[in-house]
Structure formats: C-alpha cells, structure tokens
Amino acid sequence: MNAVIRLLSGGRTGPAVDMRYGLQAAAEWLARAQDATGCGGVSAYYDATKRQWAGAYPETTGYIIPTFLRYAQFSGQGDYRERAIRMAEWETAIQLPEGGVRAGTLDSTTMVPTIFNTGQVLFGWLSAWQQTRDARFRDSALRAADWLVAAQDPDGAWRRFASPFAVHAVNTYNTRVAFALAKASQVLQEPLYLDAAVRNVQWALAQMQPNGWFQNNDLEDNDRPLTHTIAYATRGMLEVGLIAGNDAFVDAAARVARAVAQTPRGDGALPGRLDSAWRPASRWTCVTGNAQMAIIWQRLAAETGEHGWKPAAEHANRFNLSIQDVAATDSAVRGGMPGSYPRSGGYMRNRYPNWAAKFFMDALMLQLQAG
C-alpha cells in the first residue's frame, strides 16, 4: 500500500508551511496576477513553460472579489478591499448588454455570454454591493441574475449559453450558478432567484446515482470527472439547501462529500479524477479540487456540528500547503498554486491558475477562523 501511495503522490512532499504565511503568500500572488493585466481583472493563470501571464479572466475574477474582501477583514490589510472593488468595477465595465458575462479571457476573440461565468461574477457583484452600497454593483447583479433566470429551461437545467470552451453543453456543476442565484435572493430580496436555484438543484439530483456520483459533471470527461467539478456541484447543492432550508439537498451534498472523503491518498490529497465507483482515475491530484473539498467538509462541520468532517479538510489543506512554493525566486510562481501536482499532471498542466489560489485561501481562512 505504501508503494502505491508513493506512486500516486509523485514522491514525498516537503513539510507544510505555517497556514497564515501560506495564506498571505497566496494573496500576494493573486495581487501580482491582477497587476499583470493592467486592467483591474486578474490573469487567468501563469504559464510556467512559456513564462507568461494569460489575459484577465472575468469568470474567476468575479469570485476572487469575495475572497479578497474576506481577506481584507481577516488580515486587516485594506489594500485587498481596494483591489476587490477595482475588480468589481472592471466586471461592470465589461458586462455584456444583455446582462451576461463573456466566456474565456479578455483577449479571447469569442465574445458570447455564458451561464457559468455569469454566475461566478454574480458572487463578486453581490459582495461588492454589500461592502460599498454602490448602485452600479447592485444594478450589475440584478441584470446578471435576471438574465440567468430568463435563460433557464423549465426543468431547471441550463442548456443554452454553454461555454464554447467546454466539451459538454449540459452540466451538473451549474449548481454553482444556482448557489449564486440563491445568494442573490438573500441580498437583493427577490424570491424568484431562489425558486430558480431550487429548480436547478432538483434537476441536478436527477443526475445523481445511488452512490452519490453525478452524471454530466466534467469539463471534458463525464466518465472521470475532476474533483474540481465534483466540488462545484456539491458545494452548490449544499449552499442552496442551506439557504432554502431544504434538508434533502444538504443530505445529498453530504452523501457526495462522504464518498469523496473515502478517496484521499496517504498524503491527504485527492486523486484528480474519480470514476463512477469513486475509484481513483488519475495519478496526479487537482490542487483546486483539494481546496474546494476542504471547504465543503468544513462547511458541513460548521452547519451540522459533526466534527468528523474536519480531519479530511485539515489533511487536504496540509497537503496543499506542502506543495506551495513560498521561496521561489520567480515572483510569478512564488505563493501560487499549480493546477496539478505533480505540475505536469492532467489539469492545467504546468500552469498556476488563479482559481487554485482563490479556493486555497478560502479553505485556509475557514480553518483558521474555526480555531
């Protein structure tokens, strides 16, 4: 068994650094990723092979906004609040006329609205509105939420306005969009948004097998979904359930979280992909998926009072800390989080995506705040 673990993990990792130090390093890396674009948005990723930053990415910049606002309060460093507001202003400036958010990075030649990206930026506008009471952000959030509701099919799924950069048009992980709409219903006091969110999660439950595994839940390979998209779907289901007071949604999310909690390797990391029997389907780990599942396990612990969820989260956070390079001479690498570990793995190969650092920060802040 130990030989298998060493094979899967790509060798031993170094000792984990202090959580607060790793958190600060990730925040500083994301600040550099924002500065690299010169527009207020955050670069999608740093390509370590080409040694260059990608263009600003509307989708993930949107959900970095609440992370930076939270970190500003957590750390007492007001600069991160200012950075978050600049991101929100940029998102408003590039919002499409119909209310949606464009696919891809800002330098992409394709300019079409997409469901998933719009949902992720909605998180940012809602947080910015709550922080500033700037009417621009409330208006952007309303327009985005209204567009999402109008684009939804009667059964709760979103089939139109899929990303042109994803292989599959229908995705269970759009429950992450439902989560944004449920949040909008709270912040903007609009029950129709929660109704739409609940319909989407009900549709997603029809995609769930008895063992908790979701169909139609990957960017490329629905037979072996990434832990990244598994976590998107699970978190959306959990949070909509909590907001709507729907125990069935929460229980379903817990079923998935429990199944994934049985899959970590000896070093605490998850296999990057899992098959329909929850068996490892890759030798590498998806760093983003590790962080997202750590968030879900911690949210379940907080909401249910069941502390048995915490060890898996702590192990995943410890692993991610152990592979974060906080001493790299290259500032475009220092403090960032790779897409895969080893870095040559099958997700965002040799790249440092901004969303890996974002979810890493969220997972660490939850653990630190829980004491």
UniProtKB/TrEMBL annotation:
Q: Name one GO biological process term.
A: carbohydrate metabolic process
The taxonomy runs: Bacteria, Pseudomonadati, Pseudomonadota, Gammaproteobacteria, Lysobacterales
InterPro entries in the cross-refs: 6-hairpin_glycosidase_sf, Terpenoid_cyclase/PrenylTrfase
Q: Which Gene3D superfamilies does the record match to this protein? A: 1.50.10.20
The name this protein goes by in its record = Squalene cyclase C-terminal domain-containing protein
